[in-house]
Amino acid sequence: MRTVVFDLDGTLADTSGDLIAAANACFQAMGMGDQLDPLADAGTALRGGRAMLTLGMERLGRGGDTVEIDRYYPVLLEAYAGAIDVHTKLYPGAMDAVEVLRGQGYGVAICTNKPERLARLLMTRLGVLDSFAALTGADTLPVRKPDPEHLFETVRRAGGDPARCLLVGDTVTDRETARAAGVPSVLVTFGPNGTGVADLEPEATIGHFDELEGVVRRLIG
């Protein structure tokens, strides 16, 4: 079966606001106040918790304090889990595109570097988890993106053929994953990283999910 695999953060949903809030909760706990801006630092948020903590610590002149970053990473995860869907929104047309693909006989799945527990919690809160045949996170397997096995196993769990898939994402990690797997990548231009994704030379870019079905048909039939 042909399978379309989606990244989550910055691709299906803009999760940056809730991620930034969780990171700032850590800096507040340190007695330092908010260090990250929900708009200006959205791109960093979509690179994960450690990236946000590192940026904030750099602004405090403590960028090399890996002990403190490691100490607060679990705190960040718990803060995020407690308020995971306050600001998060699915991108316009995302689930319409998923349902169109399902109706055309494609498998659909999620391959994210967010911890699986949090990814499942978020998609459940958003009411869309059951639309995906499989979901794998950063800790589901011994490897994670950009290792191609993360993508391949996601496809297998969705009942698909790893040789007949593509990855929809928004970052260089998604591009590198698809390249290592020898499959096409489609990068979205509407997220915080959108202005530079064309420079990554994916097989296609889309500016709205309305474009996805035609691109999928062109790339994997």
From TrEMBL:
Alphabetical UniProt keywords: Hydrolase
Family the UniProt entry places it in: Belongs to the HAD-like hydrolase superfamily. CbbY/CbbZ/Gph/YieH family.
GO molecular function: phosphoglycolate phosphatase activity
GO biological process: DNA repair
Origin species: Roseovarius litorisediminis
Substrates-to-products reaction catalysed: 2-phosphoglycolate + H2O = glycolate + phosphate
Metabolic or biological pathway: Organic acid metabolism; glycolate biosynthesis; glycolate from 2-phosphoglycolate: step 1/1
Gene Ontology, cellular component aspect: cytosol
Keyword ATP-binding: no
Protein name listed in UniProt: phosphoglycolate phosphatase
EC number in record: 3.1.3.18
UniProt KW Ribosomal protein keyword: no
InterPro entries: HAD-like_hydrolase_sf, HAD-like_sf, HAD-SF_hydro_IA, HAD_sf, PGP-like_dom2
